[in-house]
Write a sequence for this structure.
């Protein structure tokens, strides 16, 4: 990873790499400042292989600390800044972190006090440039000579059980980022944006793109619309996105000013991490006048497939794109399995690693799908997201895609609820656009029947909510919370 920094700093030293507020960091400054931070960390006892956890917001300083750790060859364990005692304590214990970088008080939460309460070792604050460790780079040992050792521990979301520690190398993260950049056909003239937590697996993916192609990205510590729009416009961002929820947020802003581009410089929305209903693709292209490419990735494999901006509208709307060279996809009983350089090395827990990989070394994803004749991957749901009603398997994803076409549905999630007669019944949970007439179950059933949905797949229950519960990273819908809320008999 550090080699990329050195090479890019030599190629385009004065070009900006990160933009935030009124600040910018050039590629040469990234190298020089990261080396000083690495020297400061070295003075504190951080060595190659030392485990350093950090729970920091999306700031320039966070990227500097991360690359400083890469320069040293330390093992870094990024923790999403929204996580609290349970997840943070688990990550610190399981990783055996010897140091823990925190932002102090951030968004009303005292991370330093939490770290002390959890018994973290080597706590230090890294909330701005002045608080970062600083030292003399001439005292540093040589940078890592290879990229195949485990130097990254990322954490799965852990919604109903403890998170899993996912083991990555520099090579696996570089494979993901380089394939993403190639698939999106980015150029040095582009300006990207990082509107999601930098501690997410997408953080290094994005930085690899910047280092390979030499273009900058705007960082957003806290993303919300319309508040973030001035920054997108000021820096003339050409590529934005994050996940399906981000597309919908941009689309909602565009609908406030139809006919006038909400971000004049924008040419591409791109992302992944959550299902993309075809109607969202068509609405973005039609109303925003930009292309949308969606991909498929996970903490264990940051880049699996990605849509190509030059692909057909049909493929961009209904598939997750094609895999890059070197990514093998195997479908076993409907489940997607993966093998390739971007695949993680496994988990901190050897038993979880043994369970996750099959005899041929393919990672079991738990996702369902198929590959088309043109090589495009179509996701159809999760193994655990299949509703079994009277012995028949029903894909929640199929119903959700149809519901997203309904003009009175803003967003939707379909879940299975325990039922004595059927085994499970189909429950549709929807958000409605503000001011919409209230939906009813008969009207939804009628709509789905007219759309061609089989009778045995029709919802037997409808719940209208103000907002679907989501996580704090890529805004994925938390279906387990919906099942907890709506399980049991109707009132």
């Amino acid at each position: 990873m550090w080699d990329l920094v050195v090479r890019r700093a030599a190629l385009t030293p004065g070009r900006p790499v990160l933009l935030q507020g009124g600040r910018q960091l050039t590629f040469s400054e990234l190298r020089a400042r990261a080396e000083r931070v690495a020297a400061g960390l070295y003075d504190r006892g951080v060595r190659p292989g030392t485990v350093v956890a950090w729970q920091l917001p999306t700031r320039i300083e966070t990227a500097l600390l991360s690359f400083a750790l890469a320069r040293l060859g330390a093992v870094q364990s990024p923790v999403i800044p929204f996580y609290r005692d349970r997840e943070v304590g688990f990550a610190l214990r399981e990783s055996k972190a010897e140091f823990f970088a925190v932002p102090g008080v951030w968004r009303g939460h005292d991370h330093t006090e939490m770290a002390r309460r959890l018994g973290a070792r080597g706590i230090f604050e890294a909330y701005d440039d002045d608080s970062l460790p600083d030292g003399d780079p001439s005292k540093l040992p040589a940078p890592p000579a290879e990229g195949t050792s485990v130097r990254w521990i990322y954490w799965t979301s852990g919604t109903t059980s403890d998170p899993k520690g996912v083991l990555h190398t520099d090579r696996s993260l570089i494979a993901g980022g380089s394939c993403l950049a190639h698939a999106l056909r980015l150029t040095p003239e582009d300006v990207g944006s990082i509107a999601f937590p930098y501690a997410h697996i997408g953080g290094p993916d994005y930085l690899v793109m910047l280092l390979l192609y030499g273009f900058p990205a705007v960082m957003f510590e806290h993303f919300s619309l319309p508040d973030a729009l001035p920054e997108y416009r000021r820096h003339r961002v050409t590529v934005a996105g994050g996940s399906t929820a981000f597309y919908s947020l941009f689309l909602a802003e565009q609908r406030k000013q139809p006919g006038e581009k909400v971000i004049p410089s924008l040419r591409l929305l791109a992302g992944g991490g959550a299902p993309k209903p075809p109607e969202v693709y068509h609405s973005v292209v039609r109303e925003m006048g930009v292309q949308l490419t969606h991909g498929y990735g996970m903490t264990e494999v940051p880049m699996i497939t990605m849509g190509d901006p030059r692909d057909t509208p049909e493929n961009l709307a209904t598939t997750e794109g094609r895999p890059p060279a070197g990514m093998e996809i195997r479908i076993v009983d409907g489940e997607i399995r993966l093998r390739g350089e971007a695949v993680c090395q496994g988990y901190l827990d050897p038993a979880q690693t043994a369970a996750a990989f099959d005899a041929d070394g393919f990672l079991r994803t738990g996702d369902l799908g198929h590959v088309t004749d043109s090589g495009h991957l179509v996701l159809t749901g999760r193994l655990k997201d299949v509703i079994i009603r009277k012995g028949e398997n029903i894909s929640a994803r199929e119903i959700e895609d149809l519901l997203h076409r309904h003009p009175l549905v803003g967003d939707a999630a379909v879940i299975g609820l325990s039922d004595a007669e059927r085994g499970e019944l189909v429950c549709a949970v929807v958000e409605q656009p503000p001011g919409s007439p209230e939906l009813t179950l008969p009207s939804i059933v009628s709509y789905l029947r007219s759309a061609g949905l089989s009778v045995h797949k029709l919802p037997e229950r409808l719940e209208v909510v103000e907002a679907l519960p989501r996580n704090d990273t890529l805004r994925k819908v938390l279906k387990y919370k919906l099942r907890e809320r709506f399980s049991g008999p109707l009132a």
Summary: The mean pLDDT is 93. The radius of gyration is 23 Å. Residues 390-486 form a domain with the GMP Synthetase; Chain A, domain 3 fold (CATH 3.30.300.30).
